[in-house]
Write a structure and sequence with these properties.
The chain has about 625 residues and is mostly beta strands. It has two helices and 42 strands. The strands form twelve sheets. The chain has a five-stranded antiparallel sheet with strand order 1-7-6-5-4, with no helix packed on it. A five-stranded mixed sheet has the order 2-35-36-37-38, with no helix packed on it. β16 and β17 form a beta hairpin. The longest helix has 13 residues. The chain is globular and about 65 Å long. It starts with a helix and ends with a strand.
Amino acid sequence: MMTASVSRTISWTALLSLAPWAVASAQAGPVGPADWPSANYTASANRYSPLTQITADNLGTLERAWSVHLAPPDYDGPLREAQAVPLVIDNTMYVTSPYGSILALDATTGDQRWRFDLPGNDLPAKRGLAYWPGDGDVPPSLIFGTRLGVLYSLRASDGMLSAGFGRNGVLDLKTPEVMQTGMDASYEILSAPAIYRNLVITGAGVGEGARGPDGGLGPAGDTRAWDARTGALVWTFHTVPRPGEFGYDTWGGAGAANRSGVNVWGYMSIDEERGILYMPLGAPNDDRVGVNRPGDNLFSSSVVAVDANTGKYLWHFQLVHHDIWDYDAQSAPVLVDLERDGRSVPAVLIVNKTGLLFTLNRVTGEPIIEVEERPVPPSELPAEQASPTQPFPVRPEPLVQNTLSRDNLYQGERAHQAYCQRVVDDNNMQLGGPYMPIAVGRYSMSPPGPAGGINYWGPAYDPDLRLFISNTTNLFQPMRLVQAADGSWSNSGPLAGLRRFGDPDRGLPCGPTPWGELVAVDMDTGNIAYRRTLGVSDQLPPGLQDTGRPSTGGVLLTASGLTFVGGTDDYRFRAFRTATGEQLWEIRLPSSIEATPITYMGADARQYVTIVSTGGGLTGSRPTNDEIIAFALPRN
């Protein structure tokens, strides 16, 4: 494999003559409510479409209208998973491909209109691209980042590079201001940027879990805004404060210096009327050990609100103080209006991997539903100054499981019960409740863990029913702190990498069921409205399969009262009645879905619901299919 520097040198040269594979020109028109113009539908991240053609009454007649494979015809390697959410503007679908391309398709037929191939073995951001509608002088553009830290701008109409943006449509984001420990470090863009007026706002992918006595140092996770027309840098927000900036004193002396992590690797949201950007920020590096960063560590694992025009700090809410669990705040904050005492209150709904739902005033950052600082356990690790308290909302109750003991391991199939008990006993595992720090020298688990809760896909909101809706995951991860010869500590051991708590050969977790749920919260009261088990384990005997399954993609809501969700690793795509959680429809696919579904109106006046089906199976197997699949009602 080429090094990043070689690949980038090739790309700059190749771009001077690069052109897309043009099949037909598609002149992008104005964005309308029947389109799907951004990953979360709108900047408020509600994922609530006003379309109503597909209803509970006709849902059962949905059929596959068209499908397209993402892999190029001449590709013969293993299939790749895709988490990108397609965009649809004026009957053209735009999607990033994990095979190094941007595709423009006819949203009604699936016919390819153009294809842009990235040079130098680069890959587009795994979680999609953004649409900028232009300013009258510069035409509408598609803007996306890449694995090698490049930001591209393409004309939406034909996929040609936007000549006035950066250097012939390309901008190098690996600049000295963020590459603070050297230009050779990895720096990428993982998700679609946010668009506000003529600004393109990017987060950063800087890796995590650095090792060694200086663990945690590397590229800055700063958020930056660029002129969508020229690529000029407009503002930078230091996600780890610099000397003299607010929050610097929360890093214990030199803890902030060259600190990496604390980055937006998921999606952002924007109050377009007020011009406020909401940034969900990740944990600091190292995200399991914080001995060299004593303090609360702002703005790690926080949502920060800034002026979208200037990047000026407005307020913040830290979900996890001194994060040593990798509890990133990575899903887009959801902007809603709530009724309180007869008046409308601008609110923001915030979740992360802890599965706690915080409800704040989105203008001031003050809690609308009370938040308490509750005592949590101390760390066993010498010199680790874990926070003595963490924030908990008084309502709702945790959306996911947050306590694990030998008494509440999986109960069901006897063979799997015995397997789970044996794993715990053989490894002398320490099991506990919320925010129990990682144990020293032996494996421990404090649910929900870095693989649980609600991840980057985030929740959705139905403004008519006033319901918060999300799929959730109860999937735990063993961890263990081990000291290296150089004196540093790390999460290490055969169970402590990406190994989940369960039987990897059978794809069965060991925590209590359900392993996945669809959860609704009544935002008038702040209480849980319902919980529904989401997903089945086909590998278990009949009668024991209703276990729920882990998720990696979010929900889509429609004004006809429907909730669509893929996400689960059981290959199913499902629809529910939003008001009650009653399952109404299900289809099994060749691969699971790791991206959120979208809906739009086609040129044939049919409402389409479209998914990207490329995920692996229940036992961690590779994908066996790689399709974009569009469903619609029959033509008659």
